[in-house]
Specification:
This protein has about 325 residues and is an alpha+beta fold. Helices cover about 25% and strands about 20% of the residues. A 10-stranded antiparallel beta sheet has the order 2-3-4-5-1-6-10-9-8-7. The chain is globular, with a radius of gyration of 24 Å. About 30% of the residues are buried.
Length: about 325
Protein backbone atom coordinates (compact mmCIF):
# COMPACT_ATOMS: atom_id res chain seq x y z
CA UNK A 1 0.00 0.00 0.00
CA UNK A 2 1.38 3.40 -0.89
CA UNK A 3 0.83 6.82 0.58
CA UNK A 4 -1.71 9.17 -0.95
CA UNK A 5 -0.87 10.78 -4.28
CA UNK A 6 0.87 14.12 -3.90
CA UNK A 7 -0.58 17.33 -5.20
CA UNK A 8 0.46 18.48 -8.63
CA UNK A 9 2.43 21.71 -8.84
CA UNK A 10 1.81 24.05 -11.72
CA UNK A 11 4.79 24.79 -13.94
CA UNK A 12 5.68 28.38 -14.64
CA UNK A 13 3.36 29.85 -17.22
CA UNK A 14 2.70 33.31 -18.64
CA UNK A 15 0.00 35.44 -17.11
CA UNK A 16 -3.46 34.60 -18.33
CA UNK A 17 -5.20 37.00 -20.67
CA UNK A 18 -8.86 37.68 -20.05
CA UNK A 19 -10.97 36.43 -22.93
CA UNK A 20 -13.63 38.61 -24.51
CA UNK A 21 -13.56 42.16 -25.79
CA UNK A 22 -15.31 44.08 -23.01
CA UNK A 23 -13.55 44.26 -19.60
CA UNK A 24 -15.68 43.25 -16.64
CA UNK A 25 -15.40 44.37 -13.01
CA UNK A 26 -13.18 42.19 -10.82
CA UNK A 27 -14.97 39.58 -8.76
CA UNK A 28 -13.94 37.38 -5.86
CA UNK A 29 -11.95 34.19 -6.36
CA UNK A 30 -13.17 30.62 -6.41
CA UNK A 31 -13.93 28.75 -3.20
CA UNK A 32 -14.62 25.18 -2.14
CA UNK A 33 -18.39 24.68 -1.99
CA UNK A 34 -18.58 20.90 -1.44
CA UNK A 35 -16.01 18.30 -0.47
CA UNK A 36 -16.09 14.52 -0.18
CA UNK A 37 -13.04 12.39 0.46
CA UNK A 38 -12.15 8.93 1.73
CA UNK A 39 -9.09 7.62 3.53
CA UNK A 40 -7.80 4.54 5.34
CA UNK A 41 -7.71 5.23 9.10
CA UNK A 42 -5.06 3.82 11.38
CA UNK A 43 -6.19 0.57 13.10
CA UNK A 44 -6.51 2.25 16.51
CA UNK A 45 -7.86 5.58 15.24
CA UNK A 46 -11.06 6.93 16.80
CA UNK A 47 -12.49 8.18 13.54
CA UNK A 48 -15.37 10.30 14.78
CA UNK A 49 -13.20 12.08 17.36
CA UNK A 50 -10.51 12.67 14.73
CA UNK A 51 -12.97 14.29 12.33
CA UNK A 52 -14.67 16.48 14.94
CA UNK A 53 -11.30 17.70 16.24
CA UNK A 54 -10.09 18.34 12.66
CA UNK A 55 -13.12 20.43 11.70
CA UNK A 56 -13.26 22.39 14.94
CA UNK A 57 -9.58 23.18 14.60
CA UNK A 58 -10.19 24.72 11.18
CA UNK A 59 -13.22 26.88 11.91
CA UNK A 60 -16.20 24.50 11.65
CA UNK A 61 -17.72 24.17 15.13
CA UNK A 62 -19.50 20.85 14.60
CA UNK A 63 -21.25 18.39 16.86
CA UNK A 64 -21.83 14.73 16.01
CA UNK A 65 -24.83 12.47 16.39
CA UNK A 66 -24.53 8.72 15.87
CA UNK A 67 -26.55 7.22 13.05
CA UNK A 68 -26.49 4.52 10.40
CA UNK A 69 -23.77 4.14 7.83
CA UNK A 70 -24.42 5.22 4.25
CA UNK A 71 -23.37 3.77 0.87
CA UNK A 72 -22.41 0.42 2.34
CA UNK A 73 -20.42 1.68 5.33
CA UNK A 74 -21.07 -0.09 8.64
CA UNK A 75 -21.03 2.97 10.92
CA UNK A 76 -22.06 6.58 10.47
CA UNK A 77 -22.73 9.89 12.18
CA UNK A 78 -24.46 13.12 11.27
CA UNK A 79 -22.49 16.34 11.67
CA UNK A 80 -24.36 19.52 12.58
CA UNK A 81 -23.85 23.06 13.85
CA UNK A 82 -26.03 24.97 16.28
CA UNK A 83 -27.70 28.09 14.89
CA UNK A 84 -28.33 31.24 16.90
CA UNK A 85 -31.88 30.12 17.69
CA UNK A 86 -30.61 26.76 18.98
CA UNK A 87 -31.76 24.76 15.96
CA UNK A 88 -29.54 22.03 14.54
CA UNK A 89 -28.32 22.50 10.98
CA UNK A 90 -26.80 19.46 9.29
CA UNK A 91 -23.54 20.20 7.49
CA UNK A 92 -22.03 16.80 6.79
CA UNK A 93 -21.82 13.04 7.17
CA UNK A 94 -19.05 10.75 8.38
CA UNK A 95 -19.11 7.03 7.55
CA UNK A 96 -16.63 4.28 8.26
CA UNK A 97 -16.04 0.55 8.59
CA UNK A 98 -17.41 -2.56 6.99
CA UNK A 99 -15.86 -5.36 4.96
CA UNK A 100 -17.33 -4.02 1.73
CA UNK A 101 -15.46 -0.74 2.21
CA UNK A 102 -12.24 -2.48 3.29
CA UNK A 103 -11.93 -0.43 6.44
CA UNK A 104 -12.05 2.97 4.75
CA UNK A 105 -13.71 6.13 6.11
CA UNK A 106 -15.62 8.83 4.23
CA UNK A 107 -16.27 12.49 5.07
CA UNK A 108 -18.90 14.45 3.14
CA UNK A 109 -19.06 18.22 3.75
CA UNK A 110 -21.86 20.36 2.30
CA UNK A 111 -21.53 23.88 0.96
CA UNK A 112 -22.75 25.18 4.30
CA UNK A 113 -19.92 23.32 6.05
CA UNK A 114 -17.29 24.50 3.56
CA UNK A 115 -18.34 28.13 3.97
CA UNK A 116 -17.51 27.89 7.69
CA UNK A 117 -14.00 26.44 7.28
CA UNK A 118 -11.38 29.15 7.80
CA UNK A 119 -8.15 27.22 7.16
CA UNK A 120 -8.12 25.24 3.91
CA UNK A 121 -4.35 24.89 4.01
CA UNK A 122 -4.74 22.97 7.26
CA UNK A 123 -7.43 20.77 5.71
CA UNK A 124 -5.15 20.07 2.77
CA UNK A 125 -2.30 19.19 5.14
CA UNK A 126 -4.57 16.64 6.83
CA UNK A 127 -5.38 15.03 3.49
CA UNK A 128 -1.67 14.94 2.64
CA UNK A 129 -0.91 13.12 5.86
CA UNK A 130 -3.85 10.71 5.76
CA UNK A 131 -3.19 7.21 4.50
CA UNK A 132 -4.38 6.54 0.93
CA UNK A 133 -6.56 9.66 0.87
CA UNK A 134 -8.73 10.26 -2.21
CA UNK A 135 -10.97 13.21 -3.06
CA UNK A 136 -14.12 11.80 -4.66
CA UNK A 137 -15.98 15.08 -5.16
CA UNK A 138 -15.20 18.77 -4.95
CA UNK A 139 -17.30 21.76 -6.04
CA UNK A 140 -15.59 25.07 -6.83
CA UNK A 141 -17.77 28.19 -6.92
CA UNK A 142 -17.40 31.81 -8.02
CA UNK A 143 -20.00 34.36 -6.94
CA UNK A 144 -20.94 37.35 -9.09
CA UNK A 145 -22.79 39.29 -6.41
CA UNK A 146 -23.71 42.22 -8.65
CA UNK A 147 -24.39 40.19 -11.77
CA UNK A 148 -20.96 40.91 -13.28
CA UNK A 149 -21.51 37.68 -15.23
CA UNK A 150 -24.89 36.00 -15.64
CA UNK A 151 -26.51 32.81 -16.85
CA UNK A 152 -27.05 34.63 -20.14
CA UNK A 153 -23.27 34.87 -20.51
CA UNK A 154 -22.96 31.12 -19.92
CA UNK A 155 -25.71 30.51 -22.50
CA UNK A 156 -23.87 32.67 -25.05
CA UNK A 157 -20.62 30.77 -24.43
CA UNK A 158 -22.49 27.53 -25.00
CA UNK A 159 -23.88 28.80 -28.31
CA UNK A 160 -20.37 29.92 -29.32
CA UNK A 161 -19.03 26.41 -28.75
CA UNK A 162 -16.76 27.41 -25.87
CA UNK A 163 -17.75 24.41 -23.74
CA UNK A 164 -16.87 21.85 -26.42
CA UNK A 165 -14.23 19.50 -25.00
CA UNK A 166 -12.15 19.09 -28.15
CA UNK A 167 -14.36 16.36 -29.63
CA UNK A 168 -16.44 18.68 -31.79
CA UNK A 169 -19.65 17.40 -30.20
CA UNK A 170 -21.70 19.92 -28.19
CA UNK A 171 -21.92 19.13 -24.47
CA UNK A 172 -25.10 17.86 -22.85
CA UNK A 173 -26.97 20.65 -21.12
CA UNK A 174 -30.24 21.37 -19.32
CA UNK A 175 -32.15 24.52 -18.36
CA UNK A 176 -34.13 24.19 -15.10
CA UNK A 177 -36.00 27.24 -13.86
CA UNK A 178 -37.82 30.26 -15.26
CA UNK A 179 -36.44 30.26 -18.78
CA UNK A 180 -39.89 30.74 -20.32
CA UNK A 181 -40.74 33.73 -18.11
CA UNK A 182 -40.10 37.23 -19.42
CA UNK A 183 -38.93 38.23 -15.95
CA UNK A 184 -37.50 35.31 -13.91
CA UNK A 185 -39.11 35.03 -10.47
CA UNK A 186 -37.57 31.89 -8.96
CA UNK A 187 -34.36 32.03 -10.97
CA UNK A 188 -32.79 30.20 -13.89
CA UNK A 189 -30.10 27.51 -13.99
CA UNK A 190 -27.94 26.36 -16.88
CA UNK A 191 -26.27 22.98 -16.38
CA UNK A 192 -23.51 21.98 -18.79
CA UNK A 193 -22.07 18.48 -18.80
CA UNK A 194 -23.11 15.47 -16.74
CA UNK A 195 -21.95 14.54 -13.27
CA UNK A 196 -21.84 10.90 -14.42
CA UNK A 197 -18.91 11.93 -16.63
CA UNK A 198 -17.06 13.52 -13.73
CA UNK A 199 -17.34 17.20 -14.64
CA UNK A 200 -20.19 19.67 -14.97
CA UNK A 201 -20.89 23.39 -14.67
CA UNK A 202 -23.90 25.02 -13.04
CA UNK A 203 -24.60 28.71 -13.60
CA UNK A 204 -27.64 29.82 -11.60
CA UNK A 205 -29.36 32.88 -10.23
CA UNK A 206 -28.70 32.32 -6.55
CA UNK A 207 -30.16 35.64 -5.42
CA UNK A 208 -33.57 34.71 -6.84
CA UNK A 209 -33.21 31.17 -5.52
CA UNK A 210 -32.83 32.53 -1.98
CA UNK A 211 -35.34 35.38 -2.32
CA UNK A 212 -37.79 34.79 -5.20
CA UNK A 213 -39.07 37.89 -6.97
CA UNK A 214 -36.48 40.17 -5.39
CA UNK A 215 -34.66 40.99 -8.61
CA UNK A 216 -31.37 40.21 -6.86
CA UNK A 217 -28.55 39.89 -9.42
CA UNK A 218 -26.38 37.40 -7.49
CA UNK A 219 -25.26 34.69 -9.94
CA UNK A 220 -23.13 31.70 -9.01
CA UNK A 221 -20.88 29.71 -11.35
CA UNK A 222 -20.11 26.30 -9.90
CA UNK A 223 -17.86 23.54 -11.27
CA UNK A 224 -18.49 20.06 -9.88
CA UNK A 225 -15.61 17.58 -10.21
CA UNK A 226 -15.94 13.89 -9.40
CA UNK A 227 -13.45 11.05 -9.35
CA UNK A 228 -14.65 9.58 -12.63
CA UNK A 229 -11.68 8.43 -14.76
CA UNK A 230 -9.52 11.07 -13.07
CA UNK A 231 -7.54 11.68 -9.87
CA UNK A 232 -8.48 14.97 -8.21
CA UNK A 233 -5.27 16.53 -6.84
CA UNK A 234 -5.24 17.43 -3.18
CA UNK A 235 -4.10 21.00 -3.81
CA UNK A 236 -7.48 21.73 -5.39
CA UNK A 237 -8.38 22.96 -1.89
CA UNK A 238 -5.84 25.80 -2.01
CA UNK A 239 -5.58 26.43 -5.77
CA UNK A 240 -9.28 26.84 -6.40
CA UNK A 241 -8.92 29.59 -9.03
CA UNK A 242 -6.61 27.57 -11.26
CA UNK A 243 -8.67 24.37 -11.18
CA UNK A 244 -11.94 26.28 -11.61
CA UNK A 245 -10.66 27.93 -14.80
CA UNK A 246 -8.99 24.70 -15.92
CA UNK A 247 -12.36 22.93 -16.04
CA UNK A 248 -13.59 25.10 -18.94
CA UNK A 249 -11.35 27.61 -20.70
CA UNK A 250 -14.12 30.18 -21.12
CA UNK A 251 -14.29 30.55 -17.32
CA UNK A 252 -11.08 32.53 -17.63
CA UNK A 253 -13.40 35.42 -18.40
CA UNK A 254 -14.48 35.30 -14.74
CA UNK A 255 -11.02 34.80 -13.26
CA UNK A 256 -8.01 36.02 -15.27
CA UNK A 257 -5.61 33.25 -14.19
CA UNK A 258 -3.87 30.41 -15.99
CA UNK A 259 -6.05 27.33 -15.62
CA UNK A 260 -4.85 23.95 -14.36
CA UNK A 261 -6.53 21.04 -16.17
CA UNK A 262 -7.06 17.68 -14.52
CA UNK A 263 -6.22 15.00 -17.05
CA UNK A 264 -8.54 12.03 -17.29
CA UNK A 265 -7.16 8.50 -17.23
CA UNK A 266 -8.36 8.17 -20.82
CA UNK A 267 -6.26 11.12 -21.98
CA UNK A 268 -3.27 9.97 -19.94
CA UNK A 269 -3.66 6.52 -21.48
CA UNK A 270 -3.71 7.92 -25.00
CA UNK A 271 -0.51 9.89 -24.48
CA UNK A 272 1.26 7.01 -22.73
CA UNK A 273 0.23 4.47 -25.38
CA UNK A 274 1.40 6.76 -28.18
CA UNK A 275 4.81 7.14 -26.52
CA UNK A 276 5.10 3.39 -26.02
CA UNK A 277 4.12 2.66 -29.63
CA UNK A 278 6.69 5.19 -30.85
CA UNK A 279 9.38 3.52 -28.74
CA UNK A 280 8.36 0.08 -29.98
CA UNK A 281 8.53 1.25 -33.60
CA UNK A 282 12.05 2.65 -33.11
CA UNK A 283 13.35 -0.39 -31.23
CA UNK A 284 11.65 -3.28 -33.03
CA UNK A 285 10.02 -1.85 -36.16
CA UNK A 286 12.61 -3.31 -38.56
CA UNK A 287 12.31 -6.75 -36.94
CA UNK A 288 8.52 -6.68 -37.28
CA UNK A 289 8.89 -5.61 -40.91
CA UNK A 290 11.10 -8.66 -41.60
CA UNK A 291 8.70 -11.04 -39.83
CA UNK A 292 5.79 -9.74 -41.88
CA UNK A 293 7.45 -11.20 -44.95
CA UNK A 294 7.35 -14.69 -43.45
CA UNK A 295 4.08 -14.96 -41.48
CA UNK A 296 0.59 -13.53 -41.89
CA UNK A 297 -0.65 -10.70 -39.69
CA UNK A 298 -2.70 -12.81 -37.26
CA UNK A 299 0.14 -15.25 -36.71
CA UNK A 300 2.59 -12.39 -36.28
CA UNK A 301 0.42 -10.85 -33.54
CA UNK A 302 0.29 -14.23 -31.78
CA UNK A 303 4.09 -14.48 -31.95
CA UNK A 304 4.95 -11.03 -30.57
CA UNK A 305 2.12 -10.41 -28.06
CA UNK A 306 1.49 -11.76 -24.56
CA UNK A 307 -1.42 -11.39 -22.10
CA UNK A 308 -1.76 -8.44 -19.75
CA UNK A 309 -1.79 -4.64 -19.73
CA UNK A 310 1.32 -2.48 -19.20
CA UNK A 311 1.35 -0.98 -15.73
CA UNK A 312 1.42 2.54 -17.17
CA UNK A 313 -1.90 1.85 -18.91
CA UNK A 314 -3.73 0.13 -16.06
CA UNK A 315 -5.79 3.19 -15.09
CA UNK A 316 -7.00 3.71 -18.64
CA UNK A 317 -9.63 1.46 -20.14
CA UNK A 318 -8.32 -0.02 -23.39
CA UNK A 319 -11.75 -0.01 -24.98
CA UNK A 320 -12.29 3.55 -23.80
CA UNK A 321 -9.19 5.26 -25.13
CA UNK A 322 -7.85 3.23 -28.03
CA UNK A 323 -11.01 3.68 -30.13
CA UNK A 324 -10.91 7.48 -29.91
CA UNK A 325 -7.15 8.02 -29.86
CA UNK A 326 -4.66 8.61 -32.63
CA UNK A 327 -3.70 4.93 -32.37
CA UNK A 328 -6.97 4.05 -34.10
CA UNK A 329 -6.24 6.38 -37.01
CA UNK A 330 -4.30 5.41 -40.16
CA UNK A 331 -0.54 5.83 -39.94
CA UNK A 332 0.98 8.81 -41.73
CA UNK A 333 2.30 7.99 -45.21
CA UNK A 334 5.92 8.29 -44.11
CA UNK A 335 5.41 5.56 -41.49
CA UNK A 336 3.52 3.11 -43.67
CA UNK A 337 5.45 0.04 -44.94
Amino acid sequence: MTRSHRAQHASASPSAVTLGETPRPAIGGAKVDWLTFTWLPEPDEHILATVVELLRGHGLKVHAEDGNGHFGFQHGARLYVLLDDGARHQVGLIDWGGERMRGRARLDLSGSACSRITNWQGMQDFLFGAWDCTITRVDLAVDCLQGEFTVDDARNWLHEGLFTAGTGAPPRHSTPGDWLSETPYYGRTLEIGRRENGKMLRAYEKGLQLLPGSGDKWTRFEVELRRKDRDIPLDVLTRCDEYFVGAYECLQQLLPVAGERIKTHQKEGELTAERMVSHCREAYGKLVNVLRGHVDSDELMDVISRPGIPRRLEKASLGGFIAGSSLAKPLPKELRP
